[in-house]
Amino acid sequence: MKILTMNKIAKVGLDGFDQNYEICDSCPDPDGIVVRSASLHDMELPDTLLAVARAGAGVNNIPLDTCAEKGVVVFNTPGANANAVKELTLTAMLIASRDVVGGIEWARSLTGDDIAKQVEKGKAQFVGPEIMGKKLGVIGLGAVGVLVANAAQHMGMEVLGYDPYISLQSAWNLNHHVRKAANINDVFTACDYICLHAPLTEETKYCINKDSLAMMKDGVHILNLSRADLVNDDDIAEALESGKVAKYVTDFPNAKTIKMKNVIPIPHLGASTPESEENCAVMAVKELREYLEYGNITNSVNYPSVSTPFNAGLRICICHRNVPNMLSAFSTIISAAGVNIENLLNKSKGDYAYTIIDCNKDIGDRVVDALKALDGVLRVRCIR
To answer: Do 284 and 357 share a domain, yes or no?
Structure first.
């Protein structure tokens, strides 16, 4: 199978492909793609393409709906870079409180032989509060948010978490001292620090805006290491100018934020650690191989997670729309060919669904063509 790499992918990850794979950076007909930040929006997806693995969590650079319609499964690697983002979030919180960056810049500007005296005389201008005992609001309790909430609680902060879609795994991992907010407004009104770890959706876009800022404490510190458009730039600029927001730390500086008062711009370093890049690459390759070789889906963003051991003679993998009567249609066509279904697993995610059918013997091309011809079927693949 041919694997196209769209960015420099960590060698430890690519080493996960065995001799049955050809790794290339310019092949026209790949079976799979491994990508980090390169955009696929203007790329014409080849008919050979079965899956895209994003070595990272964000998938804004991938046309998810287009992929889904072509039966291309898109994976990401949630949690693989979580520790890196957690550490930078804690760093951001500390440098937003204590003007360490301003102090360093000022110290570097000093001249003369009496630097030590100048430091002692001028250090008061960089005084800032400790975070211990302060209230931190964590919006989004996924892999990163849970780590941040737990670490902040251990650092002596009172932590309030909000996530209406928290997973069972995240709930189990969350420190029991972290309080759960009933709604997002509780976070806005109660907290001294607010950090954002939510995905960008229609629901979360510009959740930090004029109205939500008005609810917050004067002098609140806001940290955004998740997605740029969770914060409305014009509204945060006004809040920074008035002093409503003491500091705004963003990992996504742009032409507007870079010029704002009391903004700490970080050049998108959230996952920029060698450990994170390696973890993401290893996880992406494992997900891609599991799908290409066995048809199992884990951590897809456009299709449901479906995984089961492959012990039959044939596995039929079907990407299709989430509409009624699909399973009965599949069963009718396969049984009419005299083939027994040993295992059938189906799950849906939004408008799309995925079905695995394990059979006791092979099926001919005519059966495959009949499955492909069904209205709503997007891709049929047989694994032997």
So the answer is: no
Task: State the pLDDT at residue 69.
Answer: 98
Question: Which residue did the predictor score with more confidence, 360 or 318?
Answer: 318
The residues pairing with 359 across neighbouring beta strands, listed in sequence order, are 314, 341
What is the reported pLDDT for 371?
Answer: 98
Give Cα separations from 344 to 27, 54, 316, 362 (angstroms). 35, 28, 9, 15
* Residue that is last in its domain, among 303, 326, 356: 303
Does 209 lie in the same domain as 94? yes
CB 163 within 8 A of CB 170: yes
Give the mean pLDDT of the chain.
Answer: 96
- State mean pLDDT over 295-304: 97
Q: CA–CA separation, 150 vs 259, rounded Å?
A: 33
CA dist list (Å): 342 to 136, 311, 324, 334, 363 = 52, 10, 22, 11, 14
Region 184-210 average pLDDT: 96
Output the pTM of the full model: 0.82
In this structure, the answer to whether residues 87 and 178 fall within a common structural domain is: yes
pLDDT digits (tens, 9 = 90+) for 211-245: 999 999 999 999 999 999 999 999 999 999 999 99
Confidence of residue 271 (pLDDT cuts 50, 70, 90): confident
